């Protein structure tokens, strides 16, 4: 696909584990399937992510896809857990978005994050995004990154802006209005 560039081949054992004071971001594991499937069937969780739940089989494919993203592109998603107790918090990372939006941002890593509803309001989304942005600044410092946020999701807009993303444009993803925020590297 034109526009997609690899930052280098990565093997599963090469996926970094990132930490901040409260969180650990680690590669996906088979043992994450049940918690991820529960998260993706929660209507509160998916409300601002297209409002579409995922079956356990779709979540399994997504886990495989993110591992493939690491292998193909050198970036992908991590599972977020608390450092103190290893409690599941959600997911965050970068993906190669080949979505039907105009203008597209193929070739630009798209940041994303999702926190399970029982962990909302603790600042985890901002902390997780800050951690991956810092990692990205070290790995691809000159690369622009973006994030896509549904227009009604004010909490995610605050998380993005707090981490240096600025509004770039509004577009449509299917029938939904979405905002594209961008951040230039260091």
From the N-terminal CA to the C-terminal CA, the straight-line distance is 27 Å
CA radius of gyration is: 15 Å
Strand content: 25-35%
Mean pLDDT: 89
Which sequence of strands runs across the widest sheet? 1-2-3-4-5
Order of helices and strands: EEHHHEEEHEHEE
Keywords:
three-stranded antiparallel β-sheet; alpha+beta; five-stranded antiparallel β-sheet
Furnish the topology, listing elements before pairings:
Layout: E1 18-19, E2 23-26, H1 33-40, H2 43-46, H3 56-73, E3 77-82, E4 88-96, E5 109-115, H4 124-139, E6 145-150, H5 154-162, E7 166-173, E8 176-183
Antiparallel strand pairs: 1-2, 2-3, 3-4, 4-5, 6-8, 7-8
Helix pairs in contact: 1-3
What do you see in this structure?
- With 186 residues, this protein is of the alpha+beta class.
- Helices cover 30% and strands 27% of the residues.
- It contains five helices and eight strands, in the order E-E-H-H-H-E-E-E-H-E-H-E-E.
- It has helices at residues 33-40, 43-46, 56-73, 124-139, 154-162, and strands at 18-19, 23-26, 77-82, 88-96, 109-115, 145-150, 166-173, 176-183.
- The strands form two sheets. A five-stranded antiparallel β-sheet has the order 1-2-3-4-5, sandwiched between helices. Strands 6-8-7 form a three-stranded antiparallel β-sheet, covered by helices on one side.
- A hairpin with a 5-residue loop joins strand 3 and strand 4 (88-96).
- The longest helix is centred in the middle third of the chain and has 18 residues, at 56-73.
- The radius of gyration is 15 Å and the shape is globular.
- The mean pLDDT is 89.
